[in-house]
Amino acid sequence: MSERIDPVTGEPASISYVNVHKSFGTQHVLRGLNLAIPRGKITVIIGRSGTGKSVTIKHVMGLLRPDKGEIWVGNDNLATMRDRDLRTVRNRFGVVFQDAALFDSMNVLDNVAFPLREHSRLRDREVVAKVRGLLAQVGLAGAELKLPSQLSGGMRKRAGLARALVRDPEFVLYDEPTTGLDPILTAAMDKLIVDTQESRPGITSVVISHDMHAVLGIADKIAMLVDGVVAHEGTPEYFKNSKDPLVHQFLTGSLDGPMKV
Amino acid sequence: MIVRAIEAIGRMFVEPMEELGRVTHIGGRGLLNLFIPPIRIRHTIAQLEFIGVQSLPIIILTSFFTGGVFTLQSFKAFQLFGAQGLVGGTVGVALTRELAPTLTGLLVAGRAGSAMAAEIGAMRVSEQIDALDAMAIDPINYLVKPRIIAATLAAPLLTAVFDLIGIFGSYVVAIYTLRMSYPDFMIRLDDWVDWDDIWGGLFKAAVFGLIIGVVACYKGFYTKGGAVGVGKSTTSSVVVSSVMILVSNYFIARYILP
To answer: Could you tell me how far CA A125 lies from the centroid of its own chain?
Structure first.
């Protein structure tokens, strides 16, 4: 496929959704999604609950397959790939899950070390050194031996971020990284996302979020999903200045507007 | 009208067929993964410890008293026509061929199968299985394979313990409670119980272990709907594997080990 250019940032698209459809039973969630994720930037996907945001990022990891359409990561079309090849593509991703999805049976250090121990030939001493460094970066120095059940929500998400970064991925996907956090922890997490992006030039971040304040602060590009398609996309400036009733209602969290509860 | 009737009949079969497909998928891929690295020896040993070693107390207790009560009851019956000497042999054959594998299977399904289904189910609803997938780690290889292997190996080992302790329980009751003589108890036991009976029982137990492993992993793996879903999977794993153990026991006894 010829390289697509993201119209918002002018950067080449490292991930492209082309007319993607996905249904679960009678529920048609993605209805012809077209979206370009620019390389080396932070793209934030916003939208009401149930509009297909999580489904959108699960497709790019190959956790879900589209019923129709194409999903390009570089030169690979995930829609037609075999499972075995999908696993190779997944090696390029780090994912921060909504509730961190840490393994309950392992402490923080083992959780973060897990992908390295599974996939790399590094000696354990090197693995541990790398993990300790990453934990320090995300503000979890000293929490190595704690179990996930002993961590607060914010700490779990940071541990999840450390685990996502441990293999130096090209792409980092964040599924609602600030949901359930207090405003200060939310700000800390947002800063962590921006710091991660700045300290690793070239990585591409995709964030799913409801938190409009943070979205406007961290995003290079924002895509707004409505009913399974991208209804609006643009820079934070575009969204701030938009007179569109949909955008305005979402930004202000108003009950009055085209979107009904 | 006719079309609707055909559709209704079709729908009745679709769900069970889908379920059968998913069970076969999990079991088949779990077994196929035996030959796909990584082998996961450490995980398998941990599961063996959980399913096998940690089930030992309940197996020892159950087998001792099963052997004991079976001796007590059969002694009463045999006494009616003065054939008390048959007690040892009868208990030995019944234990090694039927009681030990079946009761071990049911106990393991209740203790370890339920825990496996609950653990994997909780991992599913908290996205830990998605996380494995996202980290390019095959959850079948990582979670399912070690459990299926461990259950298939642990069940016959536990059955062997059941055989031993069950006969010991029978011996204790026969000698110390019923005041039978040692030769009376031992002669028929020695005569009637063949190695074939013991191996047959262990083979059955391996089949039951496989059933427990596959059903528990399948139920856990396809859990939906939060804590309620985990509860349903756990219950259903015990019910389905118990019924499958009892039904397959009949067919093995009838056609494979007559």
So the answer is: 30
